[in-house]
Amino acid sequence: MYSGAQLSLYPMSDDYVGIILESLHALDPYRSQCRIETDDLSTLVVGPPEQLFPAMRDLFLGAAATGCHCVLSATVSRGCPGEPDDAICTPRTVPRPQSLETRIAGAIRAVAKAERTGRPVAAQFSLYPLGPDDYMDEIYGCIAFLKDSGVYGIAKNFCTKLRGDAGPVFAALNESFLSFGPLDGHVALDLTVSANSPTG
Amino acid sequence: MYSGAQLSLYPMSDDYVGIILESLHALDPYRSQCRIETDDLSTLVVGPPEQLFPAMRDLFLGAAATGCHCVLSATVSRGCPGEPDDAICTPRTVPRPQSLETRIAGAIRAVAKAERTGRPVAAQFSLYPLGPDDYMDEIYGCIAFLKDSGVYGIAKNFCTKLRGDAGPVFAALNESFLSFGPLDGHVALDLTVSANSPTG
User: Fold this and answer.
1) Does A200 have pLDDT greater than 80?
2) How confident is the model at residue B21 (pLDDT cuts 50, 70, 90)?
3) What is the DSSP string of A185-198?
4) CA of A96 vs chain B CAs: smallest distance (Å)
5) Fewer beta carbons within 10 angstroms: which end of chain A, N or C?
6) Are B81 and A17 within 8 A, CB to CB?
């Protein structure tokens, strides 16, 4: 099992270097549980699948707190057969096989319990369960969950838009990633989160 | 058949609104062939699959010409069974079934013929052929093409990095999207392109 994210932070500011470097400190609490490497395009975070969205949330909240319009973009993946098994990616909780209905209900409960942050965000994402020929059933199940998650925005072509407090929005992303698609299979998620947009 | 992209432009500048609005004029030549709509998170371009990467290239070159560090991020899709058929998405050239080897050779030739722009860029992307259980063969075929494309950078976790002139780089992305994955099937591509990076 291998899980992680290639994430990038885009502060729309002349001081983008300063904002990025300052925001990266928000990842420090995750460094003991994750491998984190940065190049000119993105920061790689490899670790337990449950840690990826909390890490991205904290990174993004750091940048958004500057008041600057900023965007987090990420490619998130679990179970890719082209990646090596890595002990650092061991899930904290081994999920049990459950019906789609049970998973939808569990995901809704998890978002309802998410801590609020006071930071409104807009997000859009696409979920890609790779391999099984019934992958659209998992995608439709995820959309059904999102519609009852409290942070559903609108359906867009190729993606679903969320809006609301960053706490439940990142919780909804986390649930989408963990609870839909094959349990031990390959699932990718393509994410955009925005804060402080002048057109938001 | 439905094909299009949700694309976003991120100029790392206090003048990001002006740069985005000015750059969007680069899409004007595509408006007669594509449906183009913008919201607070992205611009949707729906049209023939062969037009998507040329449109993104021209948009990105407009923003990069300002000298500002800027990033284009996009979710590109063709053949999603959840989207309606749309005549505007009719491919200009209907592809014929060909072996992986033939497609690799054709893609290499197409990139070699790409017009150069004088603008160096770095890019990374992930290709997701959805549905078939041999999807990794298509991904490995695409990587084999990229390694001989002249713009291959490095393999990264979850994605492949390209570098070089924007002309051949966008041509390589176009070939990856059109030539790999099921001919009439569902293929998604998750893209990041960067120019003028201080760490590039």
Assistant:
1) no
2) very high
3) SEEEEEEEEEES-T
4) 23
5) C
6) no
